[in-house]
Amino acid sequence: MRSVVPDYLTDVLGDVESDTSGEPAGYIPELAAADPERLAAVFATVDGTLHGAGDVDAAFTIQSISKPFVYAMALSDRGFDRVLAQVGVEPSGEAFNEISLESETGRPRNPMINAGAITTHSLAGAENLTPVERVDRVVQGLSAFAGRQLTVDETVCASEMENAHRNLAIAHMLRSHGILTEDPRAVVDGYIRQCSVLVTARDLAMMAATLANRGMNPLSNEQVVDGSVVRQVLSVMATCGMYDAAGDWATQVGIPAKSGVAGGLIGALPGQLGIATFSPRLDRHGNSVRGVSLFERFSSDMGLHVM
Ligand code: DON
């Protein structure tokens, strides 16, 4: 029997296609050159069934969508107490690239903003890894979530590294508070390599489905992280994943989610499915304009609001 899901997805993509508002990320020159018309949506159920429409195999960089997965790795590799001592779990209400450190402790407010994600990058893997080994741990971990070997886009990585003044400033602040204990430049370099991992909408849907499936990849059956780690990650995605648009998102969409400045967006519905969309034009919060519209449609059409 023919599934109706791809027809539904094609229809919804057609409805948002005419919206050309927003701009691709301008502060990373290679991203500014992205084709703004790309558009995709993929559903991956927890039993491993994929439904997609549009540019489902177009490759783009994961950017901030890496943050919840690397937070999961840090929690698994170092334990909750160690990670929570260095990164909080409160929404910052500020843009993703604000400093947003707690005044008394110097802890970044949460792991979804850059300050928190630079810190969690440094907490992935064992304590004494070299920067190269740490990046390898991160790329292998992201690959396990996706269920296939992922690689770094060296051109996007170099382009962001040349323009990384803001992230370097944040990392130096973190080092001055003793939250980072390593060379700030090496940590930012590793964090930017993490953001430059190439994915497709299909990969992102599988990664989100692995979260929805309590940490087990539905196709490889690998238990990538424990269920307790996933609960922590989804909670932080629900409260902080959409940055200073988190409240609008919670009320209008109501799905734990994470966006990236290359135009990707994921949502994970525990026990049900992972959703990924891709469209490079961004709103003022750094979230994909058409991605947000697609999720609003999915949530209202299928009653996916979980809160
Ligand atoms: O740190 C940065 O600026 C980027 N590599 C990632 C930012 C990002 O994706 C923000 N999310 N929408």
Automatic annotation (TrEMBL):
Lineage of origin: Bacteria, Bacillati, Actinomycetota, Actinomycetes, Micromonosporales
Name of this chain's protein: Glutaminase
Source organism superkingdom: Bacteria
Keyword Acetylation: yes
Subunit structure: Homotetramer.
Annotated EC: 3.5.1.2
GO molecular-function term, one example from the UniProt record: glutaminase activity
Residues of the full protein shown: 1 to 307 of 436
Residues noted as binding substrate in the record, renumbered to the chain: 64, 114, 160, 167, 191, 243, 261
